[in-house]
Amino acid sequence: MADMPRICLSQKGSLLELDGGGKGRTLSPSGGREPLVVLCPFRTLAIHPYELPLMNLAQIREALKLRFQPYLAGGTLELLPTVFAKEAKKSRGVAWLVSRVERDAHERLLGGRQARLIPAVLALAAGGDPDGAVLGDEDHLYSVAFRNGEPLAFRCQPRSRRDFAAEAAWLREFLGDGEAEIVTADLADDEEETLARLHRGAENLLAPDHRLGAVDLSGKAIDAALRVDRFMATTKKAVYALVAGGTCAVLVTAAFLFFLKADMRDLQERSVALYRETFGDEGVIRDPLSQARARLMTSQGGSSAPDLAEILSSVGVAWAAGETLKALTLETLRYNAFGSDVVGVAPDVKDIENLQARLKEQGLESRLGDIQQTSGGKLRFSLSLRWEQP
Fold first, then answer.
1. Which residues of 8-46 are buried (b: 16+ CB within 10 A; e: fewer)?
2. Which residues contact residue 288 at a Cβ distance below 8 angstroms, ignoring those fewer than 6 apart?
3. Is residue 233 part of a domain?
4. What is the Cα–Cα distance from 195 to 206, expressed in whole angstroms?
5. How many structural domains is the chain composed of?
6. Which of 285, 302, 317 corresponds to the end of one domain?
7. Which of 15, 112, 168, 317 has the CB geometry, 3.0–4.6 Å to 8, for a possible disulfide?
8. Would 23 be classed as within a structural domain?
9. Average pLDDT over residues 97-110
10. Are residues 201 and 76 in the same domain?
11. Selection from 208, 204, 38, 41 nearest residue 127 by Cα
């Protein structure tokens, strides 16, 4: 515990250093340069769990930026992904949408110190393994819901509109579990006990094996994580190059491919069986997900829409525009009464963004679907083109 950083609470425009016994003292901006852990009562914060077939943090961030582009367009929010698990070329975690103004206000209190910014309600929950937590101060209630120990949803409510009982009831309703364990603490009612609980929770959260230990919403956190990710990617390439000629590497690769293909065959067979059970279709099924989406949309009835020739023309013009888009490959185009689905391969996420912009110039609104990394390092993507909502 000798290396434990100083734990502070951002409160009323100042930093309150917690001593663990329920007491705190205001920390001077010039009071040292050691790193800090700052518990912040974020009012503008959103959590969006994700699971993507990507391992590289830069690609994960770019894919999430495309998904949440409408929220990021104004520049007032910043996207910070936290990865909780990586396995089988997939990653799982949460995307945090953080208010730049609010985060900068907390960071101005640091006096140039290096610090981790953690939502204060997470520290309250880190003292155990609850299904949710509610933290109150004089003006607001901050609540978080968990699934398997990972944050699932966050919200802030004025105390004039909600009380602890109502907020705990909302969390149980959101989780669909009337017996869910919700922990609560109130800085306005019992500050000493709440500060002690926050300090204990922050110590637990900083343990190397804690599930929430990777959470950091500071401005420098994502840059540091990206640098580490780039270093690891370079190191892996060097290691792979050293063992590529060895018999052991060949056997490991062959075994991996065998089990991967077996898993993919099993997944495909299950998807086809589910499609046939749902729609009773005995015809050829190549892409159960896309075909099911088309069946569901077609069942809504007819619509006034461009014909296939017009769609081919518009997509062709967008695809051929500019030198950068020539590197894209169109694999599949499906057409129905309400829209069209496009599957293609692009070298980079920016090429997908450029294609969406070109499609918009042709009067086609596009929505990004799945992104998968191919064996050649490129990205296979799907776009849904819609001209009328069914």
1. bbbbeeebbbbeeebebeebeeeeeeeebbbbbbbeebb
2. 271, 272, 274, 275
3. no
4. 17
5. 3
6. 285
7. 15
8. yes
9. 91
10. yes
11. 204
Q: Which residue reads 């929220």 in tokens?
A: 71
* Sign of the CA dihedral running 282, 283, 288, 292: negative
Query: In terms of domains, do 252 and 382 share one?
Result: no
More confident residue, 378 or 135: 135
pLDDT mean over 173-202: 94
* 218 and 301 share one domain: no
* CA distance linking residue 31 with residue 14, whole number of Å: 13
- Tens of pLDDT, residue by residue over 149-167, are 999 999 999 999 989 999 9
CATH number at residue 336: 3.30.1360.100
Same-domain status, 295 and 374? yes
- The residue range of the domain holding 220 is 6-228
Q: With bands split at pLDDT 50, 70 and 90, how would you rate the model's confidence at 279?
A: low
| Residues 145 and 272 both lie in one domain | no
25 within domain boundaries: yes
Q: Mark whether 188 and 280 lie in a shared domain.
A: no
Question: Are residues 294 and 342 part of one domain?
Answer: yes
1 occurs within a structural domain: no
User: Do residues 49 and 180 make contact, with C-beta atoms less than 8 angstroms apart?
Assistant: no
| 79 vs 94: CA distance, rounded Å | 10
Same domain for 315 and 188? no
